[in-house]
Amino acid sequence: MNAELPDISLSDAAPAHSPLAWVGMQGIDLPVTVREPDYNRDLHARVDTQVDLPRPETKGIHMSRLYRLLDMLSEGNGLSPARLKVLLDRMIDSHADCGSGNARLRLAFDLLVRRPALLTEGLSGWTSYPVQIDASAIHGAYRCRVKLRITYSSTCPCSAALSRQVVEQGFLKAFAGQTDVTPDAVAAWLRDNASAATPHSQRSEAQVSVDSDPGADSFGLLALIDRIEAALQTPVQTAVKRPDEQAFAVLNGRNLMFVEDAARRIESALDSHLFPSVHVRHFESLHPHDAVAWAQPGIGSHSQGF
């Protein structure tokens, strides 16, 4: 039992001598803690982690070293860019014998947030916000980027205008030739006919990426989500009663949005120094395809790819 165990990653040479850009693991299950103002919760994350392997003769890295280092994220301290930087530095140091100088990791988890109903006091439910955090230390440069996915409702402005025209024409036809129309008569007609045509709405999705301050002690996820939802004005709801559903319909009516409008709203709400990237997608109820838009300040129409 005391015999030294072989380690062929050190004793054997690689059969084909070539450096590798990244080597590591994907899909590691890990509990993490997100601690922010008014939020403190342990969540289930999946982590990908890798280092480079620049020495062509080295057979392999030490997977177990990376795995054990990741455990520092499960110790109950809140996730932060500063803590991830420390982890990346330790990953590189742990592979000095492999010549590694770069490291990266990705965390993915769902941020669960209790959201109140729009009007009904004491009524609330849980909303899930998928989060992805990409952190890297490459050639001594550290970068940490957060990606959020937020679901909201969008009502088509064109469809709303067409629907209003149908109601207008119906009203003019119903009261043609009448010079004395009472408010009660108008109200009764609207109650029966205002839905003669309705604009189409759809569940929609915004994917937003921003850079994080490398020295920050928090990612500010909740504040970022609240800023985006405040810009859109129509976040999806959880538990509702009829007054809440009516209030949601009012929000949609006051915030008619093409996909272009949604992208611009979000872009204008974000700080440019965070290098935001915005991708919005409206899951059309009129068409079998989706409407999409991207906003990337400073890139504009010259950006390529999907």
TrEMBL record:
Record field: catalytic activity: GTP + H2O = 7,8-dihydroneopterin 3'-triphosphate + formate + H(+)
Q: Which NCBIfam families match?
A: PRK13674.1-1 (NF010200)
Q: What organism is the protein native to? A: Nisaea acidiphila
Question: What EC designation does it have?
Answer: 3.5.4.16
* Name of protein: GTP cyclohydrolase FolE2
Where does the entry annotate site (May be catalytically important)? 156
Broad EC category: hydrolase
Q: Name one GO biological process term.
A: tetrahydrofolate biosynthetic process
Q: Which family does it belong to?
A: Belongs to the GTP cyclohydrolase IV family.
Q: In which pathway does it act?
A: Cofactor biosynthesis; 7,8-dihydroneopterin triphosphate biosynthesis; 7,8-dihydroneopterin triphosphate from GTP: step 1/1
Name the keywords, alphabetized.
Hydrolase
PANTHER family given for it?
A: GTP CYCLOHYDROLASE MPTA
Functionally, this protein is described as follows: Converts GTP to 7,8-dihydroneopterin triphosphate.
Give GO MF terms, alphabetically: GTP cyclohydrolase I activity
| UniProt xrefs under InterPro entries | GTP_cyclohydrolase_FolE2, GTP_cyclohydrolase_FolE2/MptA
